[in-house]
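Record type: monomer structure entry
Structure origin: computed from sequence
Chain ID: A
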Amino acid sequence: MSKPQDYLRLMRPHQYLKNGFVLLGIVFSHQWGLSSLLGAALAFTAFCAMASTVYIMNDLMDVEADKQHPIKCARPLPSGQIKPAHALLLSLGLFSASVFLALVVSTSVLACVLAYFMLNVLYSRWLKHVVILDVFVISSGFMLRILAGTLGLGIQPSEWLLLCGLMVTLFLGFAKRRAELLMLEAAETELTGTRKVLDEYSPALLEQLTAVTAACTLISYGLYTVSPQTIALHGSPALIYTMPFVTYGIFRYLFLLHHKSRGNDTAKDLMTDKHLLLTIAGWVFTILSILA
């Protein structure tokens, strides 16, 4: 018999951390009024519900492949802890809740949420098997979160915000693919039975792609902090002092990837590594101190 915690595992609430991208718009635009905060909170919740819908949908579609995976085989569906029919009902309920909450905020948020859903449908059926494009699709999901938290709330998105968001999500995406290769190599598992696109990647290629996107993340964020437009908006040149947190965070993540067998679950890594937690806390505190 299924337990409540099995359904929670199926929904993967720890992944909701990724929906924090929805909140970036109001933080860096200085629009901290009650209506903006409420709209951002509802948009965040809508993306949480839709993200769980997508995770359940993917698990339903990949259940046979997940049974062959060294880690995913323990998930509620491939392990038989939850029946597919029950998972389908839960996903329909979450989808309805997401659409309702998004519509309460604005039609733009609804468009972003539905686009996120359709993008993930295409990803699950086809795009996840296309090398390099698969990571760009994952990054696009984060871009939709940023747009929901900006255009969806009547805020003009910053070009710097979109650029930095793109670079860091590409970095995390390619790092995830590298972690998957390392994990499967350690488990001596055939790649064909788990994720087909991994056959198209090589360790050398992923090392290059990860290094390039890490460098682009640091350069784009550094240029953002010293941009005259940024200084004029925030009334301070002090954002440059947040650069060490971003740099250390990138380097720490690379260390975890290569020496601690991490990187396969970004949200879990961020919440369980004390160095990353302290780095994020320091970055957030410094950002809010400067902007406030």
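Annotation 1: The chain has two domains: 1-157, 158-292.
Annotation 2: Residues 158-292 form one domain.
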